[in-house]
């Protein structure tokens, strides 16, 4: 049994960054945001008796006179141009249904997929019959949000070599609100792993390899070395630690957590201990604040 004194733990105040406490306003459902009808009502708010009131728990965002409340925890809403990761749940009818951490499964049509070899041609009946050879149920795929239909279903596309089926790796799920907004979602980290920060909260970690090999539609069962497996496991547990303590996730914060765990010589499995997760989150916040 491991026992740790409370005096040895870093103070909880270290998990609250000065920028968050000074510039971010948190509200709860029913709390009055403004008593001024000149502000426009955005998502997460409603008007009552001339007051703008929060309908969800989250932080207030104001753009000119438009006020919205972004939930602290939410399902993925979808935005055109987002790079996301999804898991195939159904195949048929010339389309794949994908779980993308949203309220509805998204849709990837065969016509919006680039076939192996870079072929850009009209898809025929034979291509439709061989859809499971490309992506079968349970497969993970990196795609782009093309548009949102009137029925609320997201239409996806994978028309370039940047997108496609994901090979060997690990998937970690976090709240989409914890991801730093970034146009570049795919990063090759110095530790030897590639991380896709899907805008929908699905983070995929795999060994670093060339782009064409990473997004091919062929299954690769080549054995991955012990060192890179440990690195992937360490990154996964670092993401879980940061997510548990609501630390924003980005390549910078993830590498800070990874390097901090190595400096402290923490075994991969011990990164899931509550006190260790807390220490890693605090150390990461300090590194990010100093950078």
Automatic annotation (TrEMBL):
K Homology domain span: 169-208
Matching Pfam families: ECR1_N, KH_6, S1_RRP4
Residue ranges crossing the lipid bilayer per the database entry: none
Main location group: nucleus
One of the GO biological process terms: regulation of gene expression
Key word Phosphoprotein present: no
UniProt keyword terms in alphabetical order: Exosome, RNA-binding
GO cellular component entries: cytoplasmic exosome (RNase complex); nuclear exosome (RNase complex)
Residue stretches making up the RRP4 S1 domain: 76-147
Domain Exosome complex component N-terminal: 26-62
Locations listed in the record: Nucleus
Single Gene Ontology MF annotation: RNA binding
SUPFAM superfamilies, alphabetized: Eukaryotic type KH-domain (KH-domain type I) (SSF54791), Nucleic acid-binding proteins (SSF50249), Ribosomal L27 protein-like (SSF110324)
Similarity section: Belongs to the RRP4 family.
Protein name: Exosome complex component RRP4-like
Organism encoding this protein: Hirondellea gigas
